[in-house]
Amino acid sequence: MADEFNENNENNEIEEVREERRKPRKGEKQSFFQRFSDKCSRIFVDYRGEYKKIIWPSRETLIKQTVAVLVVCAVITVIIAGLDSVFSAGQSLLSNLFIK
Fold first, then answer.
1. CB neighbour burial string for 8-35, b if at least 16 within 10 angstroms, e if fewer
2. Phi/psi at 98 (nearest 5 deg)?
3. pLDDT tens across 8-34, in order?
4. Cβ distance 53 to 37 under 8 Å?
5. Separation of CA 82 from chain center
6. Residue 37 to residue 89: CA distance in whole angstroms
């Protein structure tokens, strides 16, 4: 817990220094490339922060969930194929009744 606090504190200090360096002097305007560079670097800093928050599943959990998805896909495939067969048979029956 203390490590997280120290890391967050260090990140905040680094961000403060970066913000101070980015600020233009009085009467000076940042160039397009400077603003673009600042935005791009901010995006990557945010990505890194979000990436650290990810909780990756264990191998066992990943395998169980993958098998569950495959089983559900197989069941839905069988249901759709069955419905297709029933509707095809019904259509054939109705067309035979009315064509004769």
1. eeeeeeeeeeeeeeeeeeeeeeeeeeee
2. -85, -25
3. 666 676 676 666 666 666 667 777 788
4. no
5. 34
6. 64
Residue 16 shares a structural domain with residue 47? yes
* Residues 46, 63 share a domain: no
Of the candidates 46, 53, 47, the residue with the CA atom closest to the CA atom of residue 4: 53
Q: Are residues 35 and 84 in the same domain?
A: no
Shared-domain flag, residues 91 and 71: yes
Looking at the structure of the chain, the number of domains it has is 2
Indicate whether 2 and 46 sit together in one domain: yes
Q: Quote the CA–CA distance of 79 and 87 in Å, as a whole number.
A: 12
pTM of the complete model:
0.49
